[in-house]
């Protein structure tokens, strides 16, 4: 079974497809709609946050096939919709195999298909070497910090 077809469930329901990650609540005083967001992902390999209009996905620990299966639905959610703006931060990664590369390539493809922006942050020498050897560093040039990625005016993906 591929990562794209794995079904990940939580007590709140299916995290891949299905229900949206938000749901409107009854209107508050004055007619405003209150939006409630589901809690952050429950995985030791991923932290998701918003910064300056970007969804920042901070990968952590060992990114192998098991971690990739946990991360994939959240990555798909971040790259859904029109013109997604995403930063993938690999600074907390200790190990990164081909499953991680597959996640990056999938995020890049989904972002390009939706006319969005995707930036990568990576400083780990072995991960940088893997990105160079596979050619992914040309398609998704890594930035040294999240700050540098957020300050980049143009999309780093799709420039080749």
UniProtKB/TrEMBL annotation:
Coiled-coil regions, chain positions: none
SUPFAM superfamilies on file: SpoIIaa-like
Entry-linked InterPro entries: Anti-sigma_ant, STAS_dom, STAS_dom_sf
Region (Disordered): 1-45
Domain STAS, residue spans: 44-153
PANTHER family: ANTI-SIGMA FACTOR ANTAGONIST TM_1081-RELATED, ANTI-SIGMA FACTOR ANTAGONIST TM_1081-RELATED-RELATED
Family assignment from sequence similarity: Belongs to the anti-sigma-factor antagonist family.
Name of the protein: Anti-sigma factor antagonist
